[in-house]
Amino acid sequence: MINPKIPLAQTVIELCKAKGVKHIVISPGSRNAPLTIGFTHDSFFKCYSIVDERCAAFFALGIAQQIQESTAVVCTSGSALLNYYPAVAEAFYSDIPLIVLSADRPKHLVGIRDGQTINQKNVFENHILYSANLKLDLKEEKQVSENEELPIFKNLEDKFERLLGLQKDIQTYNEEEINTAINLTRIKKGPVHINVPFDEPLYEMVDALSVSPKVVDVKVKPEEIEDYVLKSCIEGWNVASKKMILVGVNTPNAIKQKWLNEFAEDESVIVLTETTSNLHHPDFFPSIDKLIAPLTEDEKQQLQPDILMTFGGLIVSKKIKQFLRKYQPKHHWHIDSKMANDTFFCLDNHIKNTPSEFFEAFLPRVTHYVKSTYKQTWTAVKQHRTKRHKAYMETIPFSDFKVFNTVLKSIPETYILQSGNSSTIRYMQLFKINKTIDVFCNRGTSGIDGSTSTAIGCAVVNDKPTVLITGDLSFFYDSNALWNNYIPKNFRIIIVNNKGGGIFRILPGHKNTDNFDAYFETNHDLTAEHLCKMYGFKYELAKDEKTLKLALKSFYSEDNQPKLLEIFTPKRINDEVLLNYFDFVK
């Protein structure tokens, strides 16, 4: 088998292989050639070539998001590495196992204005689980350490013996660092950075390996819940008459249905679910903004919970955050094995387990249901809002709101739905989505920058077909995502094109001025038609309700190429339709 000659490259590749890091996304370059040679000549690895580094990292993130296993991105030295940062930050806040492998110049070439060279050491330090800065393999003509030249030896034999010892120390150090980094991304579910210095020549190859790196595996036992913590939770739960469970971003099928059923049967509990929670029950409360936005101050006081239990990732709804910050619960418990954010400024209990582990220990010991009208009251409100929602849909003109109503109903069962950020995910929150559809969105940093790349990475490793719903600015911003050779034929993109940043029309501020149009909404007349032609997508457009319904009839059918549907909406009324909605449903 063909291997890179450089021992350090061999070490990185062999430890990735030993730890099951199978998917390798490579950004083409020269300094990373030793890694590229090794990964692409080993049939164990599934390698992808993505030229745009920002797209490559989000593509890898999409893979890791789906398989829940460490996925690697590999780049050359210099600014290439910095283009990975948006995806690294997303992985950090979304608990996605991403390994960044960056090639680097030798230390003596850093800081002297050598080409394609920056300070790569610890470059992600504020958004990374671990930074492994590896050491260059020893060469006679190079420095032994950071500040020390090779010593003068009495004879040649003494010289080689000393050099061999130093190389063994370097090899041991590198193996330990690589093991630590990869183990952490597997255990803690987040990004790690392994910076790998290479000296020229970079392209030499050998048949046999010169290293046999030590593999260090770490077995993690589930953290047991302290009995006093469990007892305290049970005592509080058994007496509270108003309990609210709020679920953010959550992996599909992560919670057993029997526990969800138990919560649904408790009349003192209401479960608020976001679209990204992937939790479903007829008695739960999706579409949080629909429930919260029209409430009076008296109604908000009635909704104020005694206990707030949260789990999952970031919450999309601003309205629930505003509500719980003003009407704080007496107790806020957050369940997460890794960390707890004090989102509502009243956190008093971080339960350091997965939700499933906690529910397994907690719910069987809950002795009785508290008599309460909490759920009954808000179920009646939910039913009223649902009726008004349906009535509103009959009154409104063609707009973003109507488009999302139509499009979300059209998605076939068992699809994977990837959502763009900004207004796209917020519109989705207002609609019921088929429970067989898994929903994902990059809510770690909530940026628009990599939604398309993430969705394509997701589609590549899934048997289920994937559809991405996105806004026009998000799509054009990440249009290089289409520049790869791996897009499945059953991949679908739906763009809601209102010719600018429509969400800014919903936010407070002066509208319909030259300043607003140019610097907030960023008006444009772009379409995706020519991009589709260049990248081999079948392009369809819709500009009203009739053409939209006609296009959707065949949009999901099999074809010999991926498809993109661009829907043009009238931006001047979209904000009015949405803002009037909350008054109407009241």
Notable features of this structure?
globular; alpha/beta; Rossmann fold; 6-stranded parallel sheet; 19 strands; 586 residues
What would you note in describing this structure?
There is one protein chain. 39% of the residues lie in helices and 15% in strands. The chain is α/β, with parallel strands linked by helices and 586 residues long. The chain folds into three domains: 3-206, Rossmann fold; 227-380, Rossmann fold (3-Layer(aba) Sandwich), CATH 3.40.50; 396-585, Rossmann fold, CATH 3.40.50. The strands form four sheets. Strands 3-2-4-5-7-6 form a six-stranded parallel β-sheet, sandwiched between helices. α1 crosses α2, α1 (7-18) packs parallel to α6 and α3 packs across α16 (451-460). The termini are far apart. The model is unreliable at 140-150 (pLDDT under 50).
Secondary-structure-derived class: alpha/beta
- Strand percentage lies at 15-25%
For the largest beta sheet, what order do the strands appear in spatially?
A: 3-2-4-5-7-6
Briefly note the CATH topology name of the largest domain: Rossmann fold
How is the secondary structure organized here?
Elements: E1 3-4, H1 7-18, E2 23-26, H2 33-40, E3 46-49, H3 53-67, E4 71-75, H4 79-82, H5 85-94, E5 98-104, E6 130-133, H6 156-188, E7 192-197, E8 205-206, H7 227-239, E9 243-247, H8 257-265, E10 269-273, H9 288-292, H10 297-303, E11 307-311, H11 318-326, E12 331-335, E13 347-351, H12 355-362, H13 374-393, H14 400-410, E14 416-419, H15 423-428, E15 438-441, H16 451-460, E16 466-471, H17 472-477, E17 492-497, H18 503-506, H19 514-519, H20 529-535, E18 538-542, H21 545-555, E19 563-568, H22 571-585
Parallel strand pairs: 2-3, 2-4, 4-5, 5-7, 6-7, 9-10, 9-11, 11-12, 12-13, 14-15, 14-16, 16-17, 17-19, 18-19
Antiparallel strand pairs: 1-8
Helix pairs in contact: 1-2, 1-6, 3-5, 3-16, 14-21
